[in-house]
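User: I'm writing a tutorial on reading structure tokens. Could you give me a worked example: one chain, its sequence, then its tokens, then a sentence or two explaining what the tokens reveal?
Assistant: Sure. Here is the example chain.
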Amino acid sequence: MPAATPNRVHAVLVVRPDGRTPAAFHLRRSLAALREQSRPVDALTVVVCGGDDHLFEVADGGRPDIILRAAPSTGFAAAVAQATDDIGDGMLWLLVQDTAPEPDALARLLGALERSPSVAFVAPKLVRWDDRSEIVSLGVGMTRFGRTVGLADGELDQGQHDAREDVLGSDVRGILIRTEAWKRLGGLDRGLAGADEGLDLGVRARLAGGRVSLVPSALVAVAGDGAASLPVPLTPQRRRRAAYAARLAQLHRRLVYAPAPAVPLHWLTILPLAVWRTISDLAGKQPGRIAPEWGAAAAALVGLGAVWRGRRRLRSARTASWSLLAPLRTTRAELRERLDDEPEVAIGGHRRSDLRFFSGGGAWLVLAALVASIAVFPALLAWPVLGGGALQPLATTVGQLWDDASFGQRALGLDTVGPADPFAALVAVLGSLWPWAPSRMLVLLWVAALPLAALGGWFGATRVTERPGLRLLGGAVWALAPTFLIALMQGRPTGVILHLLLPWLFYAGSVAHRSWTGAGAASILLAGVVATAPSLAPAMAAIWVGAVLLAVFGRAGHGVARLVWTLVPTVALAFPLVLHRLIDGSPWSLVADPGVPWPGPQVAADAAGRALLAAGIPTPDLAGWAALLPEGPTWWVPLLSLPLAVLALAAPLTQRWAVGTGLLVVTALGLATAFATAGISVQFVQSLTVPLWPGTALSLAWLGALGGALVALDAGLAPRVAVARGIAAALVLTCAVALAVPSLTAFARGASALANGPASTLPAFVAAEGREDPDVGTIVLTPQADSGVAAQVVWGASETIGGQTTMLSTRTEPTAQDAELARLAADLVTPSSEDVVAQLGARGIGFILLAPATPPETDAARTVRLSAMTALGQRDTLVVVGETAKGGLWRVVDEVAERPQEAASVATASWWIALGQLAVFGIALLLAVPTGASMREARRTPRVVGPHWQEGR
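And here are its predicted structure tokens:
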């Protein structure tokens, strides 16, 4: 018998440079690999899409039978169609400039195709260009909903998939297809935008009665920068391009494959699916896919012509049912197994150690702090409301809490309209955690403050050290920080909340550049920190700028987008107030402490005061030691902070000098802020000025100093002498405990400002009506020590922490409303004025409270109070309700008008601001919630940041 004539093989090689790697470099190797084939190709056509003359010369040097030029934008499908317009019978081999087949690749592919007449095309095993032990692609599957699944992508080649033959599709690079099948199928679908071309070709081949087979023994090396398939995601631009192409291909295939009646329904769901997938991308920590998602959706909406051509091509060749594909589809179980089997640690990579919260003593530390808290505050759990210092009740309902946090009418002032302080949103979140009695949440916060601080300090220490003992030290010393304990005893909610937030901000922010989960959490925490302590905004801005510059110049831009996002929620929350203050011409008022304006004890802005601040003590009584030892020497108290300071200063001298230097900078920023704010007053309460409290800045300084000390103990202090490390740690802890003794015993000694209640700052009669109607108005008159009267209008049942507004407490120039309120107050305490009560009723004010003067009451204040009682008691239009614990109370007899409603424009602005802020924080929350993929990614990175400068972490 005569020998059979071998099948003719026509190779088509498409060249298109991508602008990153010189195409000529890969093209030379690919052409050389073609020349070295044990079974040479019978014809070679090269299509050069764009490029310069040199690239064309390189292609021509490969001695192709035909060389064509095409436009730079020509896709792989169009280029192959141009080269195969008049192709004859035989086999077609599809290649690109970055495909270098092994010498026996074509022979093995051709042999497999010749042995199986039912096979439409065969696909090789694609391996990495520079490492043939890693599989790039070996078969492609598809889920029920059209998701593309690489069956072996990224795996090490150990022959584990060499037995697989039948697949649904494959990567288009290197496939060998019968020209008869190529013509019948109509070639590649140009509407796929360069993605899933081999998968779509395989689906159509199956529906046309053919098969798709793998030839794992045929190896083709690919670099990932050619005209076919998706680019290797080495850069953000490539990742966006790959995401766009993959999503557009999926949408296009869905419209092409769907039954005709379902096509309009699929088309109508494109935009709703884009919204849903946007939320999913945020939850999946992949915000970079959002723009490609919407771009692909827009292209799919207008690409109906390509869909029609694809459906016509599919219909003309189809001879089999879709049920034929069911056994080859990737099931959900197989997809989950593939994801679960994904290697968590790359070769030579890092695997995160266990957290060891329980085995390392962290849980015991928190439990001990809880026991200590109950011992320090034995009566707090029996109190329904916490008072004293800068504490006030919270609004009685969740709705009022969030109303106080929104743009519009404020709960204080005659008719104050404007943005709420960002701190009000934090108060609303806190009160919403105990919705049936929001004020109770402050009591629970005070009881849980010590264990929460220990927990935050312990977790913050995990970013600095792996040693369980040092983590315990970090948690304990953070909970014993003097500024934190003083804030607890003085009743400063801003100081307490800030101290609880800072270690978590450090925990999340230190890894924000490498994780969207960290960036999302850090963005929310940063907004909370700046809302609680606006005076820290410059320091936080400096840290943020430093982190961005480090990412740009130290990490080649890696993580810049994540770091930029960390600032967005803070800007969104503060923007209404900042804009209002800039328009109002009072930018300095933005640094005012939010909440209840309360002067409290402050250190002097002199050398002695700054020395106390440098020791971390924000009060002139040496953190309580001056009262505890009134006759004894107290010069040694500031020295208790010296061991911590010395270790922090030594941190930059260790092997981890970069981290130590960064933490020292944080300490310096905190101290500089404390020095700058000491003695500065931008707020007023009645006739008193309210200085900024430097304790919040000292919490930031304490964070940097404690972190630096842990770095020094972990990496630099006699690393081979555990005894020296133990002695230093014990000394730091002992000094922290000694410094905390007066504060921890203040409540038992009666030296704390904390008090039981009140449930309302107004009399019970007014509070009862205010709970039913939040628009009940009360004018509160308070005699002053200098014979004056302070006037304030309170709406609702009580003054509240969330209802406070720095718009009123920071005014330096009286407004028209201030002048009107002053005139009303003066007329009320003057017997000669007769129509003032009617004016109050017209303003919606139904009650008058003559509050007692601030003790001790001066003779001038007593005279004013008695005179005012006489004037108010003589008015026929007032009814005496009685003397209460809050002062004398009168009620307006005449009809009281409704409180003037805010303008429609104010309500509209409030809705838009609320929606914008909710959208931003919703995105941040979705980013912050960890997923299985983000946790797997986190396990590939060290928990401790900055082990070495070279690692850039």
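What the tokens reveal: The chain has a mean pLDDT of 88. The radius of gyration is 37 Å.
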